[in-house]
Amino acid sequence: MLRWFTTVILCLAFLGMGISTSILGPTFQDLATNVNRNISSLSVIFVGRALGYMCGSLIGGVLLDCMNQFLLLGLSMWVVTVSTYLIPFCKTAVLLIIMMSAMGVSFGVLDTGGKVLILALWGDKSPSHMQALYFSYALGAFLAPLLAKLALDPTVSADNHTEPNFLPAALNASSGAASDPLLAAPHDMNLLWAYASLGTYILVVSLLFFALFCMKSSRQGKSTASAQQSRRAQYHKALLCLLFLFSFFSFGALVTYTSYLFSFATTHVGMEEGEAAGLNSIFWVTLAACCGLAMLFAGCLSPATMIVLSNIGSLASCLFLVLFDRSPLCLWIATSVYGASMATPFPSAFSWMQQYTTISGKSAAFIMIGAALGPMAIPALTGVLQGQYPVLPVVLYTCFGSAIFTAVLFPMMYKVATLPLRKGNRKG
User: Fold this and answer.
1) Separation in Å, CA 5 to CA 9, 15, 125, 170, 350
2) Structure confidence by residue, pLDDT tens digits, 335-352
3) Can you tell me the distance from the alpha carbon of 359 to that of 131, in angstroms, rounded to the nearest whole number?
4) Entry pTM
5) How far is the C-alpha of 253 from the C-alpha of 338, rounded, in Å?
6) What is the pLDDT of residues 8-24, one digit of tens each?
7) How far apart are CA 23 and CA 39, in angstroms?
8) Positive or negative torsion for Cα 132, 136, 137, 142
9) Nearest Cα to 267, choosing from 348, 176, 144, 387?
10) How far is residue 10 CA from its own chain's centroid?
11) What is the pLDDT of residue 233?
């Protein structure tokens, strides 16, 4: 019963992480107005959050092996609560970036710790529970724009966004910046209520983690993990490096496609802006739906089967896009298939690897760093190449190349994982 209770709390935490990550998009303009900046000058906030996530993954992996997991996750959610409450009060861009970076660190700890805890609690039965975490995150990412639209008053936002002297005021604010307070109530109180509601939800989740810590339920997780310490592949480090590359290309391709999909559809395919915006929605809808289906079918489909099916879907959809890159119908169909294909490979890879070798906190941190570096490096490289070759569909070539890499990497991972176990590491 405690294992199920812990899993439910982890799903609630990942739901909050999905909402917190995605709510920045619909509220970005209001936050920029709050700190007297335009959107382009405040875009560094995404870099700060990504770097914070990578540092949090590393810190979490180290701390998971030396302190109580529930206490660590509860503290990380508490940091997210404080940051969420303070974000609408920030009146300087530096303080806002610091809050977002702190939130990124906490999310890195939660993402790494949640996976390790699921593997420790459920062992070989973890695939469906790992898929549940990703379904919760995808559901939160899908719900965030809807919740932000309900919370924010469009009339107030429109008044704030259409001030004719907004940019000059922002440029002239440097003379009086010294006297401006770091924290103050926002002009739009609906922005405050949106983040306060989210912060309250995350606070409740953090209290649930602290309750688990007080109940001493971590003993079960530690005993389960200790029972699995004897499972170690012959080339454990090589397998970790291959999974690092697998996560690098998987997450890098996902972020690259969703980042450039709108501009590609409007400039290269010639679609209307409203229709192009729907492509991102259909991508996330199919991804969330397939996460839910994977959670249900994880009991009858092995993680390896899910990875193979995902690789086939990614290869087929990307090849279809490259061959018919100017067809709107092709773009709709292939985007749906690609979104469905990207739902299961990474959580299935974690569960699959646990069958052959134990994933400790440090191992999970190493893998998650790859998942953080891919979304930073691949989209940046794609943007540079797209600027050099504006006529070519570089984003499609990038995703197709990443699909080829992941399809080739998995057989290599399987070959390395199935080498004989070290006799000294067998239990008993």
Assistant:
1) 6, 15, 16, 49, 22
2) 999 999 998 888 888 888
3) 17
4) 0.76
5) 10
6) 999 999 999 988 887 88
7) 15
8) positive
9) 387
10) 15
11) 66
